[in-house]
Amino acid sequence: MSPAPGPGPGWLLFSLGLGLVSGSKCPNSCQCQAQEVVCTGAQLKEYPPNIPLDTRRLYLDHNHITFLPAMNLGLLSDLVYLACQHNLISGVMDYTFIGVFKLIYLDLSSNNLTLVSPHSFSMLSSLVQLNLSNNPHLLSLNKFTFANTSSLRLLDLRDTGLQTLDHAAFQNLPTLQTLYLSGNPWKCNCSFLDFTIYLIVSHLDHPDGQNATCVEPAELAGWPITQVGNPLRYMCITHLDGRDYLFLLLVGFCIFSAGTVAAWLTGMCAVVYQSARRKSSEAEEEDEHGQRVVVSRRIFQSRVDAGQDGFPQLM
Ligand SMILES: *[C@@H]1O[C@H](CO)[C@@H](O)[C@H](O)[C@H]1NC(C)=O
Ligand SMILES: *[C@@H]1O[C@H](CO)[C@@H](O)[C@H](O)[C@H]1NC(C)=O
Ligand SMILES: *[C@@H]1O[C@H](CO)[C@@H](O)[C@H](O)[C@H]1NC(C)=O
Ligand SMILES: *[C@@H]1O[C@H](CO)[C@@H](O)[C@H](O)[C@H]1NC(C)=O
Ligand SMILES: *[C@@H]1O[C@H](CO)[C@@H](O)[C@H](O)[C@H]1NC(C)=O
């Protein structure tokens, strides 16, 4: 916060206190009237001081505000309507809206959001309308983002950088009616399947449905994501991509080499066994002549244990 102009810190404190108590103060370049504060297009670079504490509707749109201070915002415990569109807000934190739990309408569109912290909206259980559109650097939303916004009826996610959404993020939105999804570079891969199925079964209103299309993969480019569920399911269940083929090739090769090794081992065994048998019968013959009997004994020691059948039990 920049130092506020004024006669001195004492006076500043006094007037701030007066403002807090009476609620009669109004930020410079804003209009305050009947629990409504309008600072639209006031060239503000930061959140204005002296907003009456009983404010219910706050218009901060079309300024250059870069962040929303949770402490100051949290003083406005009656706030139900907050318009922050067309500013330079780059992120909202878990604690940003912790004090404004009665909020019904929140517009953060046309900012420069890069981060929406997972629990940013977790206290906003009365929130009915949320606009996050036109934040081109917003690349992802956590699956807990809407876990507690159970009153939400309208959600605008147009023109962001979102490539994918987790269908789990929409599990706790029983009253959601309208969902805008166009202008995003949707990546319709198999991770996206569950969300597209959700779009089919949930019967939401998609006013821009025809313009919310897949950008990737090439086979599905241009498909509206509200209709891509079935082709995507077909692709994900039957379609094999390069990696799958590589995997199958590898498995095939392993089976082939295992087979080869097994065949080679069997062959070796057979050959060794055959030659051993031949040697043993030679040895027996030679035994009659009283020669090389020691060698034969050493190779086929078990022959003796094997008993009558004459099969060696080694190997
Ligand atoms: C959300 O904000 C955008 C840009 O500020 C605006 O054009 C759009 O109409 C808003 N969405 C709704 C549903 O009001
Ligand atoms: C918006 O955010 C991006 C990414 O953080 C940054 O590069 C860019 O300068 C920002 N734009 C403005 C107007 O602040
Ligand atoms: C939802 O709200 C309840 C109570 O207000 C809180 O205990 C819980 O942690 C919140 N959930 C999330 C995901 O923030
Ligand atoms: C699908 O695309 C998203 C977004 O780029 C990515 O996070 C995810 O890992 C991808 N899933 C698969 C199965 O490729
Ligand atoms: C869809 O996009 C086209 C071209 O950008 C635009 O003219 C049309 O109004 C859009 N339709 C909806 C329903 O948003």
Give me the secondary-structure topology:
Layout: H1 9-22, E1 31-33, E2 36-38, E3 57-59, H2 70-74, E4 81-83, E5 91-92, E6 105-107, E7 115-116, E8 129-131, E9 154-156, E10 178-180, E11 186-187, H3 193-202, E12 214-216, H4 229-238, H5 242-288, H6 293-299, H7 301-306
Parallel strand pairs: 2-3, 3-4, 4-6, 5-7, 6-8, 8-9, 9-10, 11-12
Antiparallel strand pairs: 1-2
Helix pairs in contact: 3-4, 5-6
The structure holds 2-acetamido-2-deoxy-beta-D-glucopyranose (5 copies).
Q: What would you say this structure looks like, in words?
A:
The structure is a single chain. The protein is α/β, with parallel strands linked by helices and 315 residues long. Among the domains are: 25-180, Leucine-rich repeat, LRR (right-handed beta-alpha superhelix) (Alpha-Beta Horseshoe); 241-281. It is built from 7 helices and 12 strands. It has helices spanning 9-22, 70-74, 193-202, 229-238, 242-288, 293-299, 301-306, and strands at residues 31-33, 36-38, 57-59, 81-83, 91-92, 105-107, 115-116, 129-131, 154-156, 178-180, 186-187, 214-216. The strands form 3 sheets. The protein has an 8-stranded mixed beta sheet with strand order 1-2-3-4-6-8-9-10, with no helix packed on it. Strands 5-7 form a two-stranded parallel ribbon. Strands 11-12 form a two-stranded parallel ribbon. α2 (70-74) links the parallel β3 and β4. α3 runs antiparallel to α4 (229-238) and α5 packs antiparallel against α6 (293-299). The N and C termini lie far apart (86 Å). Mean pLDDT is 83; it is low at 1-23 and 302-307. Bound molecules: 2-acetamido-2-deoxy-beta-D-glucopyranose (5 copies). One 2-acetamido-2-deoxy-beta-D-glucopyranose binds at residues 163-164, 187, 189-191.
